[in-house]
């Protein structure tokens, strides 16, 4: 296949890679297309004395049974069902800080908000959350606060008591909702490739069984507005910002 034919059709354009600061995501529709693209990247990289680290490469499929087998230089690329984030590891890695009596509770709380939560929320602007996901987020947030307060598991300290001691302005889910709505406003006001991607203007069909909530559907549920009403609201940045904060602050933890 020609390089221009490999990839995914989005808004009438063919996209086969997404580049980040130090990572690249390849987008293809077939196993052969993926192997072809990897081999081309490998060939061009070696011209610049760069070499692919096969052990760090992962394959994630969105359909079928996920049984994709691609071997490069006698090394098979691992297929995964999910990518794991490091939010819990980040919380544990600074355990000595939580134990310190020389650091105030206010400072520790700020560190959780500035160091731990951003890792757990990486890429959350594009998330659609089910009730089970919301419960896991709530559980993680409360676990962070309990570890911060050094509350053993044996005493019967309720979540309500924990939150009264911490006094967080907004829940972790509220933060995620705010970021998602803020990003939605940015996307709708722009005229870039992000808009057709995020609004689901991607070629292909959806599976009939177990269909996931679309991103736009999540925005509608967050705001209670139709697509046309949303288009009108985002044009006024001040109104949209105020509504975004109001909705985020109204998010109630399921574990409370």
UniProtKB/TrEMBL annotation:
PANTHER family named among the record's database cross-references: REVERSE TRANSCRIPTASE DOMAIN-CONTAINING PROTEIN, RIBONUCLEASE H
Identification of the protein by name: Reverse transcriptase domain-containing protein
